[in-house]
Design brief:
alpha/beta, 82 residues, 3 helices
């Protein structure tokens, strides 16, 4: 049975930490259906880092707003992830 695994991140440090894990799971498509979701909190930085690792997100949530507060970011993320 194939297991679904979703990786959700939005900042460059998160991509750097998660990329090796994502790439490892993607080696086993018969065991895992990997879904990569970029919240794009740091849109340019996260996308640049994903490109470096050769990872293409399946979903981009595009939540980045200028001068965003943590609470407004969390609210937008909850709505988009629903």
């Amino acid at each position: 049975m194939i297991k679904n695994i979703a990786f959700i991140f939005g900042t460059r440090p998160e991509v750097i930490k998660m990329a090796p894990v994502i790439l490892e799971f993607k080696k086993y498509p018969m065991l895992y259906n990997v879904l990569v979701i970029n919240t794009e909190q740091q849109k340019e930085l996260s996308n640049q880092t994903l490109k470096f690792f050769g990872i293409t997100p399946d979903i981009n949530l595009n939540v980045m707003k200028e001068n965003q507060s943590l609470s407004s970011l969390q609210a937008r993320l909850q709505v988009k992830l629903e």
